[in-house]
Amino acid sequence: MALIYLVEDDDGIGEIESFALKNAGHEVALLTSVSAFWKACKKKLPDLIVMDVMLPDADGFHICLLYTSDAADDLIGV
Q1: CA angle, residues 20, 26, 32, in degrees to nearest 5
Q2: CA distance 68 to 72
C-alpha cells in the first residue's frame, strides 16, 4: 500500500497510530522530530504525511506550509 511518514514526538501516540496504519496494510516510518522528517524526505518521498502540530523542534503547521510550497510535492497528501 502507501508509504506514510508519521511525525509524532509522543511515543505512546506514535505507537498507536503506527500500529493502526500498519494493520491497514501501509508501510509506516515513525519519525520523532522535524529534522528526522526532512532527512527521510531527502531519501524518499512518502505517499502521505501525518504530522503532529506541536513538535519539539518546529510547529507542524509551519512545516506543512514549507513542504507544500514546493511544486514537486503537490501530489503528496499532508
Answers
A1: 70
A2: 9
